[in-house]
User: What shape does this take?
Amino acid sequence: MTLMDDFDLDNMEVEEEPKTEESGNRTFLLVAGILGGVLIISLVCIAIYAMVILPKRREADSAAVAEINAQNTEVAMLSAMTAEAQAWTATPSLTATSAPQSPTPTRTPVLAPTDTPVAGMGAAEEDVDPRTATVAALFTQQAAGAKTATPASTGLPDTGFMDNAGIPGLVALAASLVLVIFLARRLRTGA
Assistant: This one.
């Protein structure tokens, strides 16, 4: 007898286990259904937020911005009116006074005008209308009052990861993350 005779594959009986309904399949379907329900509920919530809550918030924000702009405009107009009122001087009023007690004036000889120009007086300055000079003076006062200091940056801001940790900190963080990957693989394999 040979070894092959002991193993007669034709007469071999295979015991089959009775097939029961696989509970693993049912559990998978239950978990998939729950996750699908959570996904659908979250999508509905996002749609409600995007269609109802967000437009109301944007409308409230734009109303607040419009109100602030209106207040700023009103303050600027009142400030300009105040500056204009402060620039004007009071006009003296006429009051009734008695005539001064002074001696009677005597005749003084007056010299005839000559063609010699006065020092500092050019031809353009002789023909200036007093109203134009007043307007020019008001514009000069307004320009002097409107000057404001322009802010200038003093340097770059000191915020962010790179400003606090720098390149060496970034390299150390990367090396530690690579080390965590190798340790996790080693622990998973159990060697």
